[in-house]
Design goal:
InterPro entries: PDGLE_dom, TAT_signal. It is found in: Cell membrane. Its main location: membrane. The protein is 46% helix and 9% strand. It is built from three helices and two strands; from the N terminus they run ααββα. Strands 1-2 form a two-stranded antiparallel ribbon. Helix 1 runs antiparallel to helix 3.
């Protein structure tokens, strides 16, 4: 007697729920383990300069690419620099908020596309009346 084992199928809803939970856990917990050192690009642009503190603010002295850099347009946004503005050490909270916003936008777009397809197929089934 031979038995065949079929892999157990996971429903789409279960898969998406597990994906969302995994994304929230990674954003909320693993982000605290991220390095605070500058990445490769930041490190390369800082070569040749030294960071000095002038009147409580950090400034660059010397000659490097980053010396003439300015803040980007979203620098004053509530989640700039991977943290919640006004609250220190909130990388995980900022990550969870980012994941929730991204999931909400994705679900909204998928819902919009699905409803349009449903309306289009209903219209074609009626003969275009």
């Amino acid at each position: 007697m031979t038995t065949t084992s079929h892999p157990r199928r996971v429903s789409r809803r279960t898969f998406l729920a597990a994906f969302a939970v995994a994304a929230l856990l990674i954003a909320g917990i693993v982000s605290y383990a991220a390095s605070s050192s500058p990445d490769g690009l930041d490190s390369a642009t800082l070569r040749g300069c030294e960071t000095v503190e002038v009147n409580g603010a950090e400034e660059l002295s010397g000659n490097c690419i980053a010396q003439h850099a300015t803040d980007h347009a979203m620098a004053s946004s509530p989640l700039a620099d991977y943290s919640v503005r006004g609250i220190g050490y909130t990388n995980g909270i900022a990550g969870v908020i980012g994941v929730l916003v991204t999931l909400a936008v994705a679900v909204g777009l998928f819902w919009l596309i699905a409803s349009r397809r449903s309306a289009r197929s209903t219209s074609s089934a009626d003969g275009g009346r």
